[in-house]
Automatic annotation (TrEMBL):
Keywords: NADP, Oxidoreductase
Protein name: NmrA-like domain-containing protein
Species in which this protein is naturally found: Leucocoprinus leucothites
Entry keyword annotation includes Oxidoreductase: yes
All copies of domain NmrA-like, residue ranges: 4-249
Amino acid sequence: MPLRIAVAGVTTGLGHAIVSALLDTPDLEVLLFTRSCSSTKDLTHFTSRGAVTKQVDYSSIPSLICALDGVDTVINTISPFVDPTPALNLITASKAAGVRRFAPSEFAFSAEGNARLNLYEPKRRTWAMLKQSGLEYTSFHNGIFMDYFAFGAPKPHEGPLYMAPFFVNIAAQKATIPGTGDEKITFTTVNDVGRFVAAAVKFEGRWPEKFGMVGETTSYNQVVRDIEAVTGKKLEVEYLNKESIAAKIEESKGDEVKFFLSQVLDVVASGLGTVEPTLNKLAPHITVTSVKDLISKYWST
């Protein structure tokens, strides 16, 4: 009998990648939780492949319990930053509905790196509740989305991921690198994240508390060399030492986005941007995309 998997947050780029990978995986029944009918209409490319949409009210635990009937695993990709209520209610409803496994909206650095980011406080609140829930759970970690290197590329990026230049702007031929640039950092494409999550769903053993996945663990200096090798153009590189980063953190207080990005600079400069390749070892059949492969795909002439 197919495992029934519910995905919350299917209109994001990450949610799309996970759903697509789940639909490519045999013996799974995929439910797409959506807040509105209009979102349902936008998901025909998934429903045509067998996915089932369910309109839910994340403020209503009874509504969620009903929608979760027969579900084995919940994958949540809803951002908790504006309002953690959907995630917290999903956990409560999952326990009441008899769901076995729950994956919260993590998908970032390791726990050590994430602990330094104030914006991730709602994630920590969700995690604390999940640990008390009695559900089987895991935290997916993938580092930085490698896809951000496609920002401004002549070839359009696949999927609805919100694109931004994350410290490296290939189109502008500029890079702002935290630390010395030799600190190790993990990058993974959203498509590879989706495939690893699908593999984890099929994992027969009990989920560990952490599931790391790695496209490539490299350094920003090596990324710059890869970009220059592919594009044939020199990047203007600015290095930020710890003192400069500390000043940025102090100056950006009051601006949530700038403060978050400044703290990310600190995480990377402190060497806390890497992820353990737990899922790579458990799913060796998954061939991952390297940084140079991704850059070549979007920037090679």
